[in-house]
Design a protein that fits this description.
The chain is α+β, with helices and mostly antiparallel strands. The protein contains nine helices and ten strands. The longest helix is centred in the middle third of the chain and has 67 residues. The radius of gyration is 47 Å and the shape is rod-shaped. The two termini are 46 Å apart.
Length: 459
């Protein structure tokens, strides 16, 4: 077994030469997780999208300006045929009442003698037009204002969701870090126990060789050493798996060598329940999102109430075109319009949309109440877990002290023949279990502390 451990250390050292070793403490672990985690990146992009949506809603308050340009080539120009009388100027004879010729008129008279026709072009073959349009919504019964408020609340909601994602990643990184550190520390305790038991086996063998111990004692000690070797191998495998899980949470390549620059903290503190609940109700990102959802549902209901009311708008158009009128030249033209839009009949859909909005508002309110109740229970459970782990640390620390003293006494008594081999091995096993339990309590306290911080909405 010692040869296997030595070989593993040599291989680890060789791998370290060819790879960059990551020196890691809990702060660095959280930093890497927040930088690399996909959920955090997705939440950040949703915030950017929500901010852009709010800007889109704000744009509805501003005039909408557009411009168009066209060129039209006509295969046949539009024409209008015009007709006019064809006349001549002539003198007219003058007769008396009896029909006798008296002479000619002294003034010429215009007399129609036929009809002339001609064509007038109404447009040329080439037609150009540049048109600009400005439209401004004047009054919508608060629809635009409420839409902008909804977009702002959606931005707040997505920002709270991003905070929630970061908080969850922070807890995952803390838990993975302390679990990996615990597994490595546990493997170290098991290795120490194995070496201690290995020395004891050598001592029993020496006593047996001198006729001071029974063969059964040697066999039991050897059997205990083999069992300890199996437990040590299991602990080392657990340490490798925990490290792999940590690297996965940090989004780092598998097999990256890691050196822990931090030990399991020893300090503990109890937490009061009432302040923790107050903090959670005020700061939890989930509640911030649900409260924003309630406000959004309320605004959506207001928008639905105004669906059947008229909207007033103003519009102006200006153009620069060729031809203008009936002249083949560039000229300007403009017009202005004020109007309103009023839905007269929608088949009852607007009323149904109002009922939908009212139901969504009630659902959001119910969801908020349910979330508050669930968070109260969650905080209560996390406070109890943290305080219990703080007590466990004190209990297990005392157990380690007692077990260490017991092992020292057992070694002396066994050497003096006042203690059996089985009693010594039981004492040594009790120390190992106490040390492992103490390490578990330390790690569990840090995990419970991180979960409580998340439960109360702390950063």
């Amino acid at each position: 077994m010692r040869f296997a451990l030595t070989a593993a250390l040599v291989l680890l050292s060789a791998a370290t030469v060819h790879a960059d070793t990551l020196h890691l403490d809990v702060g660095r672990a959280v930093e890497l997780a927040l930088a690399n985690n996909r959920a955090v990146q997705l939440a950040r992009e949703k915030v950017i999208e929500a901010r852009a949506s709010r800007d889109v809603a704000f744009g509805s308050f501003l005039p909408q300006v557009s411009a168009t340009g066209t060129y039209t080539r006509l295969a046949r120009s539009n024409e209008l045929t015009m007709y006019s009388a064809h006349d001549t100027i002539m003198t007219v004879p003058v007769l008396d009442p009896m029909g006798n010729y008296l002479g000619q008129t002294g003034v010429p008279v215009r007399v129609p003698v036929g009809v002339d026709s001609f064509r007038m072009q109404l447009s040329g073959p080439n037609n150009y037009a540049l048109t600009g349009t400005v439209q401004q919504t004047l009054f919508t019964w608060g629809k635009l204002v409420n839409a902008y408020r909804i977009a702002g609340l959606n931005l707040d909601l997505q920002q709270a969701a991003a905070v929630q994602a970061r908080a969850q990643v922070r807890v995952d990184a803390l838990e993975a870090f302390y679990r990996a550190l615990l597994a490595r520390k546990t493997a170290g305790v098991m290795a120490d126990a194995y070496e201690q038991l290995e020395r004891h086996v050598a001592q029993v063998q020496a006593l047996y060789d001198n006729g001071l111990a029974a063969k059964l004692d040697v066999m039991k000690a050897t059997l205990g050493l083999q069992q300890m070797a199996a437990q040590l191998s299991q602990a080392e495998n657990g340490a490798e798996l925990a490290l792999a899980a940590l690297l996965n949470v940090l989004a780092l390549p598998a097999g990256t060598p890691v050196v822990f620059d931090e030990d399991l903290p020893r300090e503990t503190a109890s937490v009061e329940l009432a302040p923790a609940i107050d903090s959670a109700l005020a700061r939890r990102p989930e509640l911030v999102q649900l409260r924003d959802a309630v406000r959004m549902a309320d605004l959506a209901e207001r928008v639905a109430r105004t669906a059947n009311l008229p909207s007033v708008f103003a519009q102006a158009n200006g153009s620069y075109r060729n031809p203008v009128g009936l002249k083949d030249e560039w000229g300007t033209d403009w017009n202005a319009t004020i109007g309103f839009s009023l839905p007269l009949f929608t088949g009852g859909s607007n009323l149904a949309k109002l009922k939908q909005a009212q139901s969504r508002k009630r659902q959001a309110q119910i969801g908020l109440v349910m979330a508050e109740e669930g968070i109260r229970l969650e905080v209560q459970a996390q406070v109890a877990a943290l305080n219990q782990e703080a007590k466990n640390i004190a209990y297990q620390a005392r157990n380690v002290e007692v077990a260490s003293e017991a092992l020292k006494l057992a070694e002396t008594r066994y050497q003096n023949g006042l203690l059996t081999n089985l009693e010594y091995m039981d004492t040594q096993l009790a120390l190992t279990q106490s040390r492992v339990s103490y390490l578990n309590a330390l790690a569990n306290y840090q995990v419970a502390r991180a979960r409580l911080r998340r439960a109360t909405g702390e950063d």
